[in-house]
Amino acid sequence: MRTPGQVSNNITIFEVASQAGVSYGTVSRVLNNDPHVRVETREKVNRVIQDLGYVVNRQARSLAGGKTHVVGILVPDLGTGYIGEIIQGIDTELQLAGYDLMLYTTHRTPVLEADYVGSLAQGVADGLILVLPRHPEDYIGTLRARHFPFVLVDHQGSGRDCPAVGAANWQGAYNATEYLVNLGHTRIGFITGWMDLGAAVDRLEGYKAALWAYHIPFLEELVRESTFHQLDGYNSAMDLLNLPNPPTAIFASNDVMALGVMDAVREKGLKIPEDISIVGFDDIPQASIIHPALTTVRQPLRNMGSVATQMLLELLGNPATPTKRIELPTGLVVRDSCRPPRS
Amino acid sequence: MRTPGQVSNNITIFEVASQAGVSYGTVSRVLNNDPHVRVETREKVNRVIQDLGYVVNRQARSLAGGKTHVVGILVPDLGTGYIGEIIQGIDTELQLAGYDLMLYTTHRTPVLEADYVGSLAQGVADGLILVLPRHPEDYIGTLRARHFPFVLVDHQGSGRDCPAVGAANWQGAYNATEYLVNLGHTRIGFITGWMDLGAAVDRLEGYKAALWAYHIPFLEELVRESTFHQLDGYNSAMDLLNLPNPPTAIFASNDVMALGVMDAVREKGLKIPEDISIVGFDDIPQASIIHPALTTVRQPLRNMGSVATQMLLELLGNPATPTKRIELPTGLVVRDSCRPPRS
DNA sequence: TTGAAAGCGCTAACAA
DNA sequence: TTGTTAGCGCTTTCAA
Where are the domains of chain B? Predict the structure, then answer.
């Protein structure tokens, strides 16, 4: 039973109401910018809110059916700086809009992914940003059925009809490959990412397309399926370098693997870029720091985060917003890791 | 008024109760591991929970005075990888304990810092981890007064009597300086971090102490006060290198600044480590990736996060746990950025 | 434009 | 060991 008089340590809406000499319903209206409040009343209430240092209780608001002003974000991990960049874009935008951030790292466990989404959608958050989801099939149905607002970042897999933002992976890979071809390379090794990720597939396709466009035969032996991890980049590169007729350039599907490639090249006693050219993908902060600086395909990570957030906020404001899929452009960043092949 | 029968889309404790043929209070007991439940009853309820896919509503639980199973964490930003490492330590530990993570980035705004702490402490989270807080004075009092559990990470400033975990900054700086001295350096430049951070002060003191121990005069002209940022590291290094009698080694108070130092050194046409030795602090992932690999003082960042989390969880379990301040050891990681000075 | 009151889903204190 | 019930602080009808 409601007992307005009886309050805890914290300042509640009742304190404010009694101080302001209005009913607590009115205070609630002021809090929620309900237009049906006289300006003077609103001002009076706001003044009391200020004076008392009142802050809404999120749980209560959420429980009563209001908004939580929390956006949940699901990321696979925080290891690579790659995700960090995206989060920064999200965070900045959310802060501007007055939303808080609930972060979950799934560590690539499908179970966790689905669990988190379930609990988040249950009222913890108003909306969800799914970064690099690996098994969205498991819960996108639920989310949809509940009309729960969400946006995918960098997925491009199944669920082509979900709100999503990604980067032009195909185009980026095409451009990078073209660049190598124009330098004179014809034996270009390629190291893929997880092939269950749409982004990884697109990059491989871009690479293939560029080769075809320049009438360079696509050779399976120059392609290694890998995982986006540095160590696997290293191993794949070793593999390629041990070929009887090794490539003169290696294109890694992300920068982290490109770092691994560099390790491998050095270990073989080869020089970058004199003996072998290397291209990465992402343009993580390290790419410009290492020596030689890495030529790579820039993904606008921060932007992707910020655009995704804006899409979500729009959805939050108007659930009927038509589904958008945005693809941000990628760009080749030419640094010092490529050179024409030795002839 | 309570209306058990009338339920929303979501499965609530009432569904479970009626399906299991018990009262909903009993279900609550099962949920909270209350020992006063018959084993069979517990099993029956648990089965129904499973079947229905019931998940507790966090807001309701929290509102009713229960735990939220959320730990708030406050970080200055996510830019450097430094914080990312700490968060990973926290995250892993929290996951193990079944807690969720609410992340706030303050972007070094004192107002935000205090605001967030206020709202978090109001019931959003059960406990708080404050990473690298810059103005804890503003709210530690409040937290204390409310008996709200919190742990500081890497602070070491005021509030010596708060639960905190840090690293042996003094020792690390001492060891690194000693290493340079043993290589034969006598003119060792030092670039500080924000001097309002205890860690930064400790590092400077460690540097001074090592010099004194080896009877090398401490020269103000070789010290530059800086900010932990790469660009400022660059500028400070430029400044030092432009000295009529420049140092033969530079010790930067963190790795990020050391990267800036490297830029400056290269821009002056000098070679690392032949012409000038460089030491950093932190051992962020980049440190081992760059070329030449950076000799640095390793901070056990992940460990710091994990230890802080364990302390918090202990506090959560037993608020009467005596205040601990833990200092984790640092260690010199010798790589390729140092060499004896040219004679 | 305002007030009154019915819940949101749960915990915990009190009875039984 | 279990059932019952009073709130937790708020939003949102429904009246006035």
Answer: 13-56, 70-167+301-326, 169-300
